[in-house]
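Write out the 3D structure for:
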Amino acid sequence: MKRIPALAITAILLAVMPLCAHGGEIVISAVGDIMLAGKWTPVLRKDGYDHPFGGVAAALANGDINLANLESPIASGGREYTSKKFRFRAETEVARAVRKAGFNLVNLANNHSMDFGGGALAETMDNLEAAGIAWIGAGADLAEARKMALFTVKGKKVAFLGYSLTQPVEFFAAQQRPGTAPGFEHIFVPDIARARQVADYVIVSFHWGKEGRSMPLPFQRSIAHKAIDTGADVIIGHHPHVLQGIERYGKGIVFYSLGNFIFASKGTSTGQSAIIRLHLDDARREAEILPLDVLYRRVGFQPRLLSGKPAAEVIEQLNYLSKPLNTEIKSQNNSYVVSF
């Protein structure tokens, strides 16, 4: 099967989605890690792969573009990389469920996309294309892994790029090797600069940081600032499995980690998450935060939108984490927002 280029599938997506009206606000939703594989497969198969998205599908329906970090290949084949402890491979039905839930873009730049090698990565991209999902951050070689996904929404162009800064380094793509796009400065700086030339908004996804750590490491802040200085508007981070703070910097905003989204979040530290809903137009740049409960013993694999006191507690924690970054989430018209 000849694979359609990522940008071509993006064009196909946009041809069939109601995104072409000029003027008006662009809404982009972003979430953390999706992992529907591993030892949990029998449970997921029993409930159906649509079930995990049941509590959030309505919220995602408001997004023109919905982005998630896909924390596993979606494949039946491939060669397992046995030199790391955790390896995941999701069944092919997952791609259709992710698309049905409203996601039209996923990040593949992470430490699991190559768990079953280049063959499974290629199969993953075929399955995503068949489901109508574009991707960023991985490819058959470094050039493909670095390509932006470019959407035209309501007369504006929105570019997405994805990078990984997690081990194993053997997963990084090279000139003649499949893999993920490494988040090195000499790679992301020219990529962002190119995207800035063609897009009205540039959104960059980084898989980075330390698992379980609630504060970003110094290198994360340095990279985020460099990316925004180069032309990025929004940085979306993941990998730590916990929420990290939000930082307004320059003319952009950084979400250092959105935590888990659909994942077996067993510990209380990983039980909080959020959907970030970006509202973008010529007069407004605002991020709305929708708190989530993702603790497995309470919600299973089905994240639950929070309201009232439980939602306020998540925002209180996020504000605590964001205070050292000189950023505050404000309550406004029954929602939680940060302008940037």
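The two ends are 44 Å apart (CA to CA).
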